[in-house]
Amino acid sequence: MITGKNYKFWFCTGSQDLYGDECLAHVAEHAKIIVAKLNEAGTLPYEVVWKPTLITNELIRKTFNEANVDEECAGVITWMHTFSPAKSWILGLQEYRKPLLHLHTQFNEEIPYDTIDMDFMNENQSAHGDREYGHIVSRMKIERKVVVGHWSDSVVQEKIASWMRTAVGVIESSHIRVMRVADNMRNVAVTEGDKVEAQLKFGWEVDTYPVNEIAESVAAVSEADTNALVEEYYGKYEILLEGRDPAEFRRHVAVQAQIELGFERFLEEKNYQAIVTHFGDLGALKQLPGLAIQRLMEKGYGFGAEGDWKVAAMVRLMKIMTAGKKDAKGTSMLEDYTYNFVKGKEGILQAHMLEICPSIADGPISIKCQPLSMGDREDPARLVFTSKEGKGIATSLVDLGNRFRLIINDVDCKKVEKPMPKLPVATNFWTPQPDLYTGAEAWILAGGAHHTAFTYDLTAEQMGDWADAMGIEAVYIDKDTNIRDFKRDLKLGELFYR
Ligand code: MN
């Protein structure tokens, strides 16, 4: 179900009519070459579209307003080839509502020492014009990304690519609709939050349905459809009976197949892209959705357990931001469960009762059927695996009562030393940066939750830029974090976001 439109980004070059037609012809030609080369490079996840050079207040305003209403346009890239008096940009920028990138580049890479004259200088003065433009954007307090360097540099192109995914996250945030088929777990604080404020800030729609409405959709799934999906599971995953009767095991798996199909149809029919459940509120469902939810997450649905709609929306957001990424390693809800405090091997075992997305799996994926230690239903079938190694980010969006804060922690995912044959759930294992002690202390000081939205495929910068665009606080826990500075940052955040 991961969709995401065929987004495009407009490339708008600024200039003015002071320099004559010949110069403006060069400006347009250069911009067209840059756009063509950026598209050819294969680094950008979305297409860049050249737009006629912006030289007047009227054209700037018109172009930004066209970008606003063009459904495929996810953002505008601006660059001042020459000098463009920035008052010309005020009205357009005031009315513009989508993500903005300021590409601070110039057409030529090297100063042409032998031939450079004043004509060349006047035609190629981004170093000068981009400062004038940057000033007005700063004065207007407009959130934007600034990328500096020659456009042919792969580092610059990677930065543009990275920003494009953030921009799509900004645009797509307002298309996220979360279905709650259970309230937040009783007495739990951190999964709570202000849903009206979330819609104001992020555009998320969070709606409740009685669990038995979705249970009816599950019951309506035919035996034939269910059996066909069970066949698919048996072909795709290892079956770990662990002494259970094969026919009984298969019946348990079939319950999850029926839930997957029933949930998916209900979500599609009602146009939701994320869902929350709760083990204590299952209505007529025979099992806690485990394998079913894992498969839906893999298809791109957001999920949060125990009514955690913030995590459900964040997982969906990250799924859409990483959609189509080459060599993507996966995105999932996770939960901080158990520590390893052995010196030199410190880390946090990540898991949940059941619901971890198999997109993060490394190696074979098995189906197991085991009792749940909580709840009062049949033993649910679930997918069990361990996760990939490598860098990732764990994020937690918390509601502090008067505002939201996004906590972003760089983490290093590792293999655990030994297999855990008695653990019937999927796991990940990571060491938070800068180390377990500082990382966990900072996380707790910031009020971070036990549930996280985790991905291997986005960076802290991308999520922090998203938070900036949403107008909320972002705090970073990474290799540079020390507690004294971190506490000061939290205090500054209290002032800034009050
Ligand atoms: Mn939980």
Q: Low-confidence segments, ≥5 residues, pLDDT <50?
A: none
Q: Give the distance, in angstroms, between the N- and C-terminal Cα atoms.
A: 38 Å
How would you write the strand order of the largest sheet? 11-12-17-16-15-18
In quaternary terms, these chains amount to single chain
Bin the helical content: 25-40%
Write down the domain tally: 2
- Strand segment count: 19
Largest sheet report = 6 strands, antiparallel, barrel
Using only C-alpha atoms, the radius of gyration works out to 25 Å
What general outline do the C-alpha atoms trace? elongated
User: What is the tally of helical segments?
Assistant: 15
Q: Which strand-content bin applies to the residues?
A: 15-25%
Query: What's the pLDDT, averaged over the residues?
Result: 96
The ligands found in this model are: manganese (II) ion
User: How would you classify the helix and strand content by structural class?
Assistant: alpha/beta
Kindly list the characteristics that best describe this protein:
5-stranded parallel beta sheet, alpha/beta, 498 residues, 2 domains, 6-stranded antiparallel barrel, binds manganese (II) ion, 15 helices, Rossmann fold, single chain
